[in-house]
Amino acid sequence: MNTESVRDMLNDKDEQGEYKIPFLKSIKWVFLVLVFVVPVLLLSGALANNMFILFVLAFIVQYIGLLAERWFFFAQANQPQNLYYQTI
After folding, report:
1. Which of 81, 65, 83, 77 is nearest to 28 (CA)?
2. I want to staple 65 with a disulfide (CB 3.0 to 4.6 A). Which of 17, 30, 35, 71 is the partner?
3. Which residues pair with 13 in a beta bridge?
4. What percent of the chain has a predicted confidence (pLDDT) above 90?
């Protein structure tokens, strides 16, 4: 699989504008949960129980969520500069 076919697969939508791959419909919610909700819960648990490992785990979960979100953003290739250069 080359980059073009992966990009086409990620951007493939049906007539209503929904992604054809079911997991991609909810992937942005997964990123939001990994980046915000889970770290906040881990931090509150760390503060309540005075457990340093939960601070570290919150950092790791948020970092993984941010990396995954950035990868998805660039894999979709819907950035304005890419849309501009595709028309030239």
Report:
1. 65
2. 35
3. 19
4. 36
